[in-house]
Amino acid sequence: TVLGVWAGPAAAFCGTYVGSPGVELTNQTSQVIISRQDNTTTLTLANDYQGDATNFAMLIPVPVVLGEDDIRTVGPELFQRFNDYSAPRIVTYECSDFYYDDDMLNSGGGDDGGGWAEEGEPEAPPVVVEGEYAIGIYDIVILSATESGALIDWLTDNGYGANPQAEEMLTEYIDDGQLFFAAKVNLEEASEEG
Q1: Which of 75-79, 117-121, 139-143, 179-183 has the lowest mean pLDDT?
Q2: What strands, in cross-sheet order, belong to the sheet with 2-8?
Q3: Are the C-beta atoms of residues 28 and 49 closer than 8 Å to each other?
Q4: Which helix (H) or strand (E) is 72 found in, with range?
Q5: Is there a contact between 174 and 59 (Cβ–Cβ < 8 Å)?
Q6: What are phi and psi of 85, to 5 degrees?
Q7: Region 76-92: what's the mean pLDDT?
Q8: What pTM was computed for the model?
Q9: 175 neighbors 151 (Cβ within 8 angstroms)
Q10: Cα-flanking dihedrals φ and ψ of residue 70, to 5°?
């Protein structure tokens, strides 16, 4: 199964597998399709993870809180169609075939939403579940975090697992105001789908 994720403004893609402590997760190939239309960027990714589904989870930084309608699973034939479409061929383009908009360069990253709590207000928790969805065979959460260590603890406590060595990488994304898309296999749903 392939996950399709709408990611709002374009941002650098870098995700990681997370899983049970001590389990080494392997993936031979990852395929990513990024498309942009108007102000919408669509990220579609496929991984050929091989191993026990109980150990699999994926964590991807995203610039905005994704809604349930922004996430879907798609069949692997999408990648074959895209490979066929993008295969080398001889074509002729004219300069007038391309439209360039200055606003495309000015759509920066997300607001970190940070700030100090007012006096007397309780301090926000270091990890907040911004969205929680069941999509196909996946349980998905969208998380915001202010501390990478707390994010790793949350992932571990909630069955996603995380390597403590990822703390430095996660700190960079948190400092940049990114949120996190975390997906793991719902074993009951997966067994029903075969």
Answers
A1: 117-121
A2: 30-37, 40-47, 2-8, 71-74
A3: no
A4: strand 71-74
A5: no
A6: -65, -40
A7: 80
A8: 0.62
A9: no
A10: -85, -5
The phi and psi torsions of 60 (rounded to 5 degrees) equal -130, 130
First to last CA, the chain: 12
User: Of 15-19, 89-93, 108-112, 135-139, which gets the smallest average pLDDT?
Assistant: 108-112
Structure tokens at 6: 């709408």
Contact between residue 6 and residue 42 where contact means Cβ atoms under 8 Å apart: yes
Burial class from Cβ neighbours inside 10 Å (0-12, 13-18, 19+) for residue 141 reads: buried
- pLDDT at position 54 is 65
Look-up: residue for tokens 């606003």? 103
Q: pLDDT grade, residue 98 (50/70/90)?
A: low
What digits encode the pLDDT tens for the residues 64-73? 898 888 888 8
* Phi (first) and psi of residue 131, to 5 degrees: -160, 150
In angstroms, the CA 19 to CA 184 distance is 9
Beta strands in 77-171 (DSSP E): 127-135, 138-145
Structure tokens given for 38: 């108007």
